[in-house]
Specification:
8-stranded mixed beta sheet, alpha/beta, 10 helices, 401 residues
Length: 401
Amino acid sequence: MAALTMGIWITAAYADIAIVGGRVYTMESPEPLRNATVLISDGRIEAVGTDIEAPFDYRQIDATGKIVTPGLIESYSQLGLVEIWAEGTTVDSQVEEYAVGPSLDISFAINPASTLLAVSRMDGVTRAVVAPMPGSDPLAGLGATIRLGGDKLLVESRAALFGDVTSSAANFTGGSRAVLLQRLNDAMHEAARFSPNRYRAEGDEYSRQDMAALKGFLRSGKPVVLRVDRAIDILRCIELAEEHGLRLIVLGGAEAWKVRETLAATNTVVVLSASGNLPAGFDALGARLDNAALLQQANVDVLYAGSETHNSRNLRQLAGNAVAHGVLWFDALKSLTQIAALTWKMSDAGVLRPGAVGDVVVWTGDPLEVTTWAAHVIIQGRIVRMHSRQTGLFHRYRSPD
């Protein structure tokens, strides 16, 4: 598909940039580089260190007294798929009536002109996972990864298969999770031996198009992301993934702390909201604020997601909540950067080292504190214009005259 460009939000073409005097977290060590310099050239990190002299012809950004980190990565969102939840014509995240499952590729619907991209970008989010939501089937479809600035929006289409095995998703299969999990297991076995010439869908079985997509996914090595909260259901999802040789990512995971040893043993990543301390239903009776801390103490990789796409900008605040309940500060920052990049196969993001992509944020203070803001955001070596629809409205109506 054609490249989706983002140039309208960037102040200039690639520039040679020197960020000088800051406390730099490269993410390769918990200890920052103090009074350090970060050089960016041709969209990538050129050098990072404390003994680097900024070339005279580089555009300098004074980071004295500030903190410098890689750009943050939102690990679950509908950015570019949703503008106003209450207005159906602006929602492309789910399919409710048309019969489609794993073949849905939401990358075709991502809108590079969404106002939510600028709002998130101004708070240091430089990349994001964009996922479909279940509408008529437990398997919602194939998600994508995007960058929130630079040459093009889409980083990778069909980056993961998303699904839901909570009690609400069981309504797609008659109301029982037994049928739901059996449907997924049977479909994957059928997809592994799928032949388009011999396949005939019966009843509510997946269409030929869905089975072809599912077979392609099973061979891709991409992760399956399943929304699941209840501890026993998490274990069943792990068994399902192991049976089919899949890399599982647990989304939600309200009771993940109960099965943290198994999650660690199977290298299962958990994407959660650090503010989930109350049960939203009977699936999440074991919800607790130190969920992330207990998981990381057991060596489970934890990622964070904004509680709602319109508030992806609060991603760092949620990670700060996790720190307030036992997560180490550097581990929380690492989850938003390097660990997220490794999980989503963004090999050139999430770190500050020579050759890495030039996604850098200069913060006025601790990025996990709500009183801090992003002074400068750089995406792919381009300085972002710190403007959104919200700031435009603020300046328009700040004076009653």
